[in-house]
Specification:
Layout lengths: L2 H12 L3 H13 L5 E3 L9 E8 L6 E8 L3 E3 L4 E3 H4 L9 E4 L3 E4 L6 E2 L2 E2 L5 E5 L2 E5 L4 E6 L25 E5 L2 E4 L14 E5 L10 E8 L8 E11 L3 E5 L8 E3 L2 E2 L26 E3 L14 E4 L7 E8 L2 E5 L6 H11 L4 E3 L12 E4 L31 E4 L5 E4 L6 E8 L2 E5 L6 H10 L5 E3 L13 E3 L31 E4 L10 E4 L3 E7 H6 L17 E4 L2 E7 L8 E4 L3 E10 L10 E10 L6 H4 L1 E3 L2
Parallel strand pairs: 12-13, 15-19, 24-26, 30-32
Antiparallel strand pairs: 1-3, 2-3, 4-5, 6-7, 8-9, 10-11, 12-21, 13-14, 14-20, 15-16, 16-17, 17-18, 22-23, 23-24, 23-27, 25-27, 28-29, 29-30, 29-33, 31-33, 34-35, 35-37, 36-37, 38-39, 39-40, 40-41
């Protein structure tokens, strides 16, 4: 750098506030920008150093403090991680992964668009039955089952090669009969049946239901992650399996590796494991659609069914699908509110009763849920509060049941919410569509009522929400509008029609978002707690679990009933607390920042809050605290 440029650089630096100048110097001379400006050194982590600087001014009287992690530790100074102990992500909580420079960092979510429409959270634009739409990759994927992809499979050539594979959509990996995933640790060359063994650079996600991105790399002769090839997307599904949106590698010969974990799901091999030459690509995987009807072993996580209900699919013993197996629900605390959520999830109309004591016979196997406590606004039974999956004190003599108003379930599909889409009816073990001959608002009104979706707004025809597949169950439907089920309306008879799927009927109902509930603030003697109503925040397009206080690393939360609670110690500087006093009170102020779903650089919603504590120590803190939450 010549003298003139150096002088210009120094002049620009001198215009930076003292605290920021300190962080700039730290970045220049240590290669780290892990310091955080604080108002008190008490905010610093035990393994951090509190550095003091003076902001430039006439008297240099403005003090700036910052917390910086000590050597051997990384973080923002408020939280510091031991690089030796934490490099395997063991220090990181769910939804976070290890970064060598920053410690535990939050997994960024990925959001897709489809036909000019932004897909709902954690879905992707996927081709389903030849039509691209927003769909859950956990339900629409292809299977990869190649024994040679194992990290234990080595060969000196010829090599398997993914370089020329036309990867399309999402993939779930198996090794034999076991679940498999792409390893996130250093895999040596010549493993996985290839020369360049591909793995992901960051750990596989530990938080269910979020699509995140991961860098793909392979090992050179000396470096664990030398060849960085592509970025892929990955999602941990509620059945405890991973799906990957793979990209073709930029180097060859190379192949994605696989390692086993978890339980045996019993999925057959789909490819020939015999050695192939280096120009041969894996056999295209067989498409798998796990949105099967109740009773099918390919049910999705959280799906429910009613069994032993006679000729009705809308009454019977409640069973829920978890970890690859169906299980029952205990009747402790079971009531009509819980049963209504079941009827809504199945599209079976209003609830009539919530039988207990195994009225529909005793089930077998697991009891997945106990002490279910729904608020009534949930769209799925799995969203209700309960003791925890598999945690119960019941026997099958206490299996819960449900009787809904309708005889056959109905659903609306191929849209971004459950209250609009193509009409499908469940009959004879299969979902099928409804022909649009004579289709009108009265018919749509019955569907909306059956799904608990409010009033009918429109009754589109001509497959406006895409063409279905399989049987066309109903034609010439004529409802009065007050029937409990669409199958109770006049029609030609199940399966009798003169239509094609280009005439599939649809319905648009009034989509009713959960009612708004304001945040709650609790001022305790030792902590300040702010609680957000999960459904209300979600309905506003915000992620209730994305919050952080004034210090960005302060994002710990706990769940209680239908709220997520963020907390901060009642101390000056803790998580960015601002302390001010007057003649009678000490006031701690902070703010909670909540972010929209899957928007990395979006402006957060700010919720400032404060608690006033009396300076008179003889007073009871719990009696005289004054909270403020605008």
């Amino acid at each position: 750098m010549d003298d003139s440029k150096f002088v210009s650089w120094m002049q620009s630096i001198m215009r930076v506030p003292g605290g920021l100048f300190l962080l700039v110097l730290l970045h220049i001379f240590t290669g780290s920008s892990s310091g955080t400006l604080v108002t008190s050194c008490a905010s610093c982590h035990d393994e951090a150093t509190c550095l003091e600087s003076r902001e430039r001014g006439d008297t240099f009287s403005h003090q700036a403090l910052s917390c910086v992690c000590k050597e051997g530790f990384v973080g923002d100074g408020l939280t510091c991680y031991d690089t030796k102990l934490c490099s395997d992500s063991s220090c990181c909580r769910q939804g976070y992964h290890w970064s060598p420079d920053r410690g535990c960092v939050k997994d960024p979510s990925v959001k897709a668009s489809c036909g000019g429409v932004v897909c709902p959270s954690d879905t992707d634009c996927i081709s389903v039955n030849g039509t691209e739409r927003c769909a859950d990759p956990c339900e629409h994927y292809s299977i990869i089952n190649d024994e040679w992809r194992s990290v234990n499979y080595t060969r000196s050539g010829p090599y398997y090669n993914d370089f020329g594979v036309n990867w399309q959509g999402w993939y779930r990996m198996f090794l034999g009969q076991s679940n498999a995933r792409i390893p996130d640790w250093c895999v040596s060359r010549f493993s996985c049946g290839t020369l360049n063994s591909l793995r992901i650079e960051q750990p596989n996600p530990t938080e269910y239901g979020r699509i995140v991105s991961r860098n793909v790399c392979s090992m050179s002769s000396s470096n664990c992650c030398d060849y960085r090839t592509r970025t892929i997307n990955v999602k941990l599904c509620y059945g405890n399996y991973y799906v990957y949106k793979l990209q073709h590698p930029s180097v060859g010969p190379s192949a994605y590796c696989a390692e086993t974990y978890g339980a045996n799901p019993g999925v057959p091999s789909t490819t020939d494991p015999r050695p192939q030459n280096s120009t041969t690509t894996p056999t295209p995987a067989t498409p798998h659609n796990s949105t099967a009807v109740p009773g099918n072993n390919t049910a999705v996580e959280g799906e429910i069914r009613l069994v032993n209900g006679g000729n009705s699919s809308c009454s019977g013993r409640v069973e829920i699908f978890h970890n690859g197996q169906w299980g029952t629900v205990c009747d402790d605390s079971w009531d009509l509110i819980d049963a209504q959520v079941v009827c809504r999830q199945l599209g079976c109309g209003r609830v009539l009763s919530a039988p207990v004591m195994a009225q529909f016979g005793q089930g077998t196997g697991h009891i997945w849920m106990d002490n279910v406590r729904c608020t009534g606004s949930e769209s799925k039974l799995s969203e209700c509060q309960h003791n925890g999956v598999g945690n119960h004190n019941c026997g099958h003599s206490e299996d819960a049941g449900v009787v809904c108003e309708a005889l056959s379930p109905v659903r609306l599909v191929n849209s971004d919410n459950r209250c609009s889409g193509r009409v499908e009816v469940f009959h004879n073990g299969q979902w099928g569509t409804v022909c649009d001959d004579s289709w009108g608002l009265n018919d749509a009104q019955v569907v909306c009522r059956q799904l608990d979706c409010g009033e009918a707004r429109a009754a589109p025809t001509q497959a406006q929400f895409g063409q279905g597949s399989g049987p066309i169950w109903l034609d010439d439907v004529q409802c009065f509008g007050n029937e409990p089920s669409i199958t109770d309306c006049t029609h030609r008879g199940f399966g009798v029609h003169n239509c094609g799927h280009h005439e599939d009927a649809s319905t648009v109902c009034e989509f009713q978002s959960p009612s708004h509930e304001a945040p709650q603030l609790i001022c305790r003697s030792d902590k300040l707690l702010i609680g957000l109503h999960i459904n209300s925040v979600t309905a506003a397009g915000l992620n209730p679990f994305s919050g952080n206080l004034a210090s960005r690393n302060c994002s710990w939360f706990s769940l209680q009933d239908d709220r997520v609670w963020y907390e901060v110690d009642a101390q000056a500087g803790a998580c960015g607390n601002d302390l001010r006093t007057n003649s009678t009170h000490a006031v701690y102020s902070n703010a909670l920042f909540i972010y929209p779903y899957n928007q990395s650089f979006a402006v957060p919603v700010t919720l400032p809050f404060s608690c006033a504590y009396p300076l008179n120590t003889d007073s009871s803190l719990y009696m005289t605290i004054r909270p403020f939450l605008p």
